[in-house]
Amino acid sequence: MARYVVDVMPKPEILDPQGKAVLGSLPRLGFAGVSDVRQGKRFEIELDGEPSDALLEEVRAMAEKLLSNPVIEDFEVHAQDVEA
């Protein structure tokens, strides 16, 4: 089994109201020194077969076509070890 992780984040120039809300709440909860928060999403995808460059490219295509909005979001894809 192959497991891949897709991390999707708003592009730096895009306003992130959820991140700003979290940033505003942290000091009220006693957490000081946080200068910025960006909120994104994470997908864990398991595929049949062994990890390969071909599967990595397939997951990148999934991220580009469905899991992210390339106009306002960036994404990163990486393989993750599968624990037995």
From TrEMBL:
It is an enzyme of class 6 (ligase). It catalyses: N(2)-formyl-N(1)-(5-phospho-beta-D-ribosyl)glycinamide + L-glutamine + ATP + H2O = 2-formamido-N(1)-(5-O-phospho-beta-D-ribosyl)acetamidine + L-glutamate + ADP + phosphate + H(+). Part of the phosphoribosylformylglycinamidine synthase complex involved in the purines biosynthetic pathway. Catalyzes the ATP-dependent conversion of formylglycinamide ribonucleotide (FGAR) and glutamine to yield formylglycinamidine ribonucleotide (FGAM) and glutamate. The FGAM synthase complex is composed of three subunits. PurQ produces an ammonia molecule by converting glutamine to glutamate. PurL transfers the ammonia molecule to FGAR to form FGAM in an ATP-dependent manner. Belongs to the PurS family. Its EC number is 6.3.5.3. It comes from the Bacteria. This is Phosphoribosylformylglycinamidine synthase subunit PurS. The keyword Lipid metabolism does not apply. Its main location: cytoplasm. Gene3D superfamilies: Phosphoribosylformylglycinamidine synthase subunit PurS. It comes from Nocardioides baculatus. It is found in: Cytoplasm. Part of the FGAM synthase complex composed of 1 PurL, 1 PurQ and 2 PurS subunits. Pathway: Purine metabolism; IMP biosynthesis via de novo pathway; 5-amino-1-(5-phospho-D-ribosyl)imidazole from N(2)-formyl-N(1)-(5-phospho-D-ribosyl)glycinamide: step 1/2. GO terms for molecular function: phosphoribosylformylglycinamidine synthase activity. Keywords: ATP-binding, Cytoplasm, Ligase, Nucleotide-binding, Purine biosynthesis.
